[in-house]
Amino acid sequence: MGRNSCCLKPKLRKGLWSPEEDEKLFNYITTFGVGCWSSVPKLAGLERCGKSCRLRWINYLRPDLKRGMFSQQEEDLIISLHEVLGNRWAQIAAQLPGRTDNEIKNFWNSCLKKKLMKQGIDPATHKPLEENMEAIKDEKKNSTYNNEKPKMEAIHHHHHHHLHGNISKINEESSQHFVNKIEFDSLSSYLNGENNNNSNNNGGGFSWESENKLENLLEFQTNQMKNLEFKGSSSVEESKIIQNQINSATFGSYHPLMSMSENERAGSFGIFHHI
DNA sequence: AACAGGTTCAACCGCGACTTA
DNA sequence: ATAAGTCGCGGTTGAACCTGT
């Protein structure tokens, strides 16, 4: 179709956002809401393109954003979701309240990928690295045969093992519930190609239908996480213990840059104190 | 202290999908 | 039907920061 990028227009600012710009955008969106992004900069008095404003709001200014490190539960969930969804960051982010696709993508690329590699797991396939090498060899060997079924069985087995391993960290009851649900409601039907309406869909590959089926079970796990983090204990003491467990399970992704700019922003305009 | 190399993450870019005129 | 505008996504970039020497 050929159109100019909005950011190519002269005069428009690029790069890091100043606290003043943040304030203008924040005040505008909280007052008038999110409407047409292309008109936001003009109405908010910003020399930015609408796209840049949208991104800034979604990734940084939105009041419902969760700040700080990813919890162990979030980490497990991201890995599990990535295993099923691949690099569909927006869909993964949709299952983690308060997290953005950009944040999760960065976390994946900077931390989780390496962590999986260290564990001998290929972050792209979520299979053991050696198994991958063998699979490649086999594929070359048997390239004329139809390998679909054995492959799917291997993946199913792996999902069973991996998902169970991840979820057991949350707690036994929820893990059992989750595993039951994920295995019998969604993954097994997806992985076994029993997806009624889409059985002819890409020869058993990923489909939107199967993805939709995931929503319920993902919502379930998210709720479990919420329960664990915010409700799960009846006393303050218990919740402290759980919070400590969560904190101790996390690993260093907390960025001073983030906290610094957060403080800077909070200090630079008081409106954030009201959120 | 100074520098180099590595890491992190906010922001940009290009593209496809969707909507509107 | 289609051109133009808009939105949202995923990949990439580069400045800021960290760490080791």
Walk me through this protein's architecture.
- This is Transcription factor MYB61-like isoform X2.
- Keywords: DNA-binding, Nucleus, Repeat, Transcription, Transcription regulation.
- This protein is mostly helical.
- Among the domains are: about 10-65, Homeodomain-like (Arc Repressor Mutant, subunit A, Orthogonal Bundle), CATH 1.10.10; about 65-125, Homeodomain-like (Arc Repressor Mutant, subunit A).
- About 65% of the residues lie in helices and about 0% in strands.
- It has twelve helices and no strands.
- It has helices spanning about 20-30, 40-45, 50-60, 70-85, 90-95, 100-120, 130-140, 150-165, 170-190, 210-230, 235-250, 255-270.
- Helix 1 packs across helix 3 and helix 10 crosses helix 11.
- The radius of gyration is 22 Å and the shape is elongated.
- Mean pLDDT is about 60; it is low at about 1-5 and about 145-275.
- The chain binds a DNA duplex (21 and 21 nucleotides) through helix 3, helix 6 and helix 12.
Structural topology:
Elements: H1 19-32, H2 40-44, H3 50-61, H4 72-85, H5 89-94, H6 101-118, H7 129-141, H8 148-167, H9 172-191, H10 208-231, H11 236-249, H12 256-268
The structure holds a DNA duplex (21 and 21 nucleotides).
